[in-house]
Amino acid sequence: MKDTFVTIATFEFLADVVAIKGRLESEGIQVFLADENTINSDPAISAALGGVKLQVYAADGERAMAIYEEVRSYAIGDDGMPVVCPNCKAQKSEAYYERKGLFYKLFPFFEFRKFKCLNCGMITKPH
């Protein structure tokens, strides 16, 4: 039987995933980090690869996602407060970059940060 994996989340840097990986493993869930070594050797290519992918066996997917939802952090605005979606008022947003155009694909650090609401999907710019 071939095991399949599901990606629970992606992270720009390896350091961002370490705590969540530890929590999942402490709950008995085996964790795999795709592109971990490549990004660890050259963090500048993280955007090109799509970040470090936190993966688990498909059989553990639902349980892993529930644990991740308990411990994940959401976007914080420049004022230090959670970002509130203007559409649904949820405080479940994450940083979002469109990477449109060749310039932003080659130099993603020049793109201004936006936020994507994980509740309704609305994309907003910070105030």
Structure overview:
A hairpin with a 5-residue loop joins β5 and β6. With 127 residues, this protein is of the alpha+beta class. It contains five helices and six strands. The chain is globular and about 40 Å long. The mean pLDDT is 84.
List key phrases describing it.
three-stranded antiparallel beta sheet; 21% strand; alpha+beta; 28% helix; 6 strands; 5 helices
Itemize the secondary structure elements and their pairings.
Layout: E1 5-11, H1 18-26, E2 31-34, H2 36-41, H3 46-49, E3 52-57, H4 61-71, E4 93-96, H5 101-106, E5 114-117, E6 123-124
Question: Beta-strand percentage?
Answer: 15-25%
Supply Rg. 16 Å
The H-and-E topology, N to C, reads as EHEHHEHEHEE
Q: Please give the count of helices.
A: 5
Termini Cα gap: 51 Å
The residue ranges in which pLDDT falls below 50 over 5 or more consecutive positions are none
Total DSSP E strands: 6
Helical proportion, percent range: 25-40%
| Averaged pLDDT | 84
Largest sheet: 3 strands, antiparallel
Strand order of the largest sheet: 1-3-2
Strand-pairing-aware structural class: alpha+beta
Shape: globular
Summarize it.
This protein is α+β, with helices and mostly antiparallel strands and 127 residues long.
